[in-house]
Structure formats: C-alpha cells, structure tokens
Design brief:
The complex is a heterodimer of chains A (157) and B (203). With 157 residues, chain A is α+β, with helices and mostly antiparallel strands. Chain A has helices spanning 3-6, 8-24, 27-37, 96-109, 112-143; strands at residues 43-58, 67-81, 86-92. Chain A has one domain (8-130). In chain A, strands 1-2-3 form a three-stranded antiparallel sheet. Chain B is of the alpha/beta class and 203 residues long. Chain B has helices spanning 11-27, 46-55, 67-71, 77-88, 161-168, and strands at residues 32-34, 61-64, 91-92, 100-104, 127-131, 140-145, 148-155, 179-184, 187-191, 196-199. Chain B is globular and about 50 Å long. The mean pLDDT of chain B is 93. Classes of the chains: A alpha+beta (157), B alpha/beta (203). At the A-B interface, strand 1 of A face loops of B.
C-alpha cells in the first residue's frame, strides 16, 4: 500500500490544493521557483499539452440557480514519471509550458522523496502569493461595493 | 496498476495523416494503406489503434473483444479500453450497441445482432475493425463496385467462416450494412458496404 492510499481523502484535498495553487499562480513565478529546485526528472508525456474550451457557470450572489456565463480556454497535459506515477496539469488560459510544468510537479508531489521539498519550496511560497493576489482583488472589489435600497415613498400607507 | 500509454505526439497532424489514409482505404476498397503514426495499445495492433485514436470521440461507444487479449499473452483488454477512454473519451460498450468494434478474424460473431443503421439513417451502423494475421494468406477474394476499376483481388488472412460468409453474402440490404476495416500491424484494407465480394476462381 502506498502512502497516498493510507489517507485518501487527506491526500485528495492536499492534491487539489497544490494543483489549484500551481494553476492560479503566474507562470513567471512558477517557473522561477521551479528553476531554483534544480530538478529534471525523467518523464514521458502521455498527453501533449492541448488547448480546449470549458464553459463557465455562474450564480448570482453565489446562491442563485446556475446559468451559463461564458466560455474560457483551458489547457491540459499529462505525464508519466519513470516509476509509473501520472501527473496532470489543467489551467485556465493557453500556456502549454505552464500546463506541462504543473503535470510534472504534480507527478513529483505524489512521490514521498520529493513531496516535502516541493511543498516547502514551490507550493508554499506560491500559495501565499496567490492568497495575496486574491486578497488584493477582494479588497479592490469591496471598495466599489454598492448597497441598493429603496427609499420609502409612503404609497403603502 | 493502470498504465496509460502515450497517444499521438502531435494530435492534430497525426490524426489528419491517419484520416487521409482511411479516406483512401474506404474510397478505394481493397487498397492497402499504411498507418504508421502510433505503435498501438496492446492487444490491439498499430493500425486498429490508430483508427480509433483518429476517428473516435466522447460520442463513440467502443467495443473491444476480450478474445483479442487471448491471442497476445500478457495483454489486458481493459487496459486498452482505459487508454482509449483517456485519449479519446470513448465509452466502453457492448458489441450490440457499439459504433466501433474491434474483433479478431478468428472470432465467431453474429452479424445479425450488430448495429446496421435504419433506412432513414443508414450511417448509424457499426464500423467493424477486424485484426487479422496477414494479407498474404487465406482465400483469394475478388472485389468490385464503387472505387474499384474493373476488379481488385485481395487476401485477408485466415477468416472465421462467419466473417467470410458475411463478406460474400451480406445479410443486410443496401444502404444498410457494416463497413469492415481489416488491420494487420500497420496495414489496413477496407471493405465498404458497397463492395461486392466474390471468391476468386481457383486456377
């Protein structure tokens, strides 16, 4: 039994986290952090990076019923490491190098030997960067928020 | 453990190359074409795998005969099915419902149970991919019909009597019927439903 299977749900959450961080972080940041690691694992590309469309759905106020909102480009790739571990990369946009890099990092993050190093030197710094960006956007949005209200006009009386 | 093998390296370009070859094969039945863009997912041979990689997508119910795995030791039909699901999003299906089916030339199948389309929609029939041992043995068949100037003679390897019988006397009236793609390693010969097949007279 591999260590991934020992705690499947924890592993799933943590994998979702690193995939999300790697996909949301800007490519320049991902590649510069990756380069400092000095890793060049042997891997085989089983799905060459390819670009497709995904439909985005939205909810008004985050609670309404779903409606089709827009289409966006999505890039995906898949690799297999020498020991058979498969890594996947999905991201919004059309950066094929980025998708491939995510796939390779995903493969390595599933391996005990590399997991801690990658978490500490790649995922953690990028996670705080992504969080910072989200907070900044949220702050900007919050400052433009408008509360709608109706002045009582006295017609109901 | 499930091992996903690589698909086409250059998906678009290699699919186009395969499509062009298949177009030639089907528009000129009996012509041998070469598909050399992929090594194939065992137990399927190279040509059969490329037909599926090139033509099938998420709307294609795909049947792979378990009999094929018996002919190639160490291969697993479910593994091949998973590879196609990964690369083309095909759905595994029973033979009766399949749009594309891969079988062995040594296999007995009931042609009457296959999808053959309807009079209104004759294109909704199965494309049968038959893996065969070679194109140099077996009964000599004379082909005639659209896409064939005069006649063409082919050998399709040793065929199960039921397959041979269907070739010689299709049980479905045109435009209904099944299109057959015979695959051996990287070579493919197509027999479309318009082709009339006769046993060549022995001399």
């Amino acid at each position: 039994m591999t260590w991934q299977q020992q705690d499947a749900s924890y592993h799933q959450q943590s994998r979702q986290h690193w995939l999300s961080v790697l996909a949301c972080a800007p490519y320049e940041q991902v590649i510069s952090h990756w380069n400092t690691l000095g890793l060049d694992p042997e891997c085989e590309v089983i799905r060459q990076p390819e670009i497709g469309l995904a439909r985005i759905q939205g909810r008004v106020g985050g609670t309404g019923s779903r409606f089709n909102f827009a289409d966006t480009t999505v890039t995906r790739a898949a690799i297999r490491l020498a020991d058979g571990t498969t890594g996947y990369g999905y991201l919004q946009g059309r950066n094929k190098h980025h998708a491939l890099l995510i796939a390779i990092a995903d493969g390595l993050l599933q391996q005990r030997d590399y997991h801690d190093q990658l978490q500490a030197q790649l995922v953690a710094p990028l996670a705080s960067l992504v969080k910072q960006q989200h907070e900044q956007v949220a702050k900007q949005m919050a400052s433009t928020k408008v509360d709608f209200f109706t002045v009582v006009r006295g017609e109901d009386e | 453990m499930s091992i996903i093998a690589p698909g086409f390296n250059q998906n678009v370009e290699q699919s186009q190359v395969c499509f062009r070859q298949l177009l030639t094969a089907l528009s000129e039945p009996g012509t041998e074409v070469t598909l050399d863009q992929h090594v194939g997912f065992s137990p399927l041979n190279s040509a059969a795998s490329q037909v599926i990689l090139c033509l099938c997508d998420q709307l294609t119910p795909l049947y792979l005969s378990p009999f094929l795995a018996e002919l190639v030791p160490g291969s697993d039909i479910a593994q091949a099915q998973r590879n196609f699901t990964f690369h083309c999003n095909t759905k595994p299906s029973s033979l009766v419902n399949a749009d594309f089916a891969v079988i062995s030339s040594q296999e007995s199948i009931h042609f009457s149970r296959l999808k053959v389309g309807t009079d209104e929609q004759p294109h909704q029939s199965v494309t049968l991919i038959i893996q065969t041992d070679d194109f140099t043995s077996g009964p000599k068949l004379t082909l005639s019909g659209p896409g064939i100037p005069n006649q063409r003679t082919v050998q399709l390897g040793q065929l199960h009597p039921k397959i041979l019988q269907y070739l010689l006397a299709p049980s479905h009236p045109f435009p209904l019927g099944v299109d057959l793609l015979f695959c051996h390693q990287q070579s493919l010969i197509a027999i479309s439903r318009t082709t009339k097949v006769e046993l060549a007279s022995c001399m």
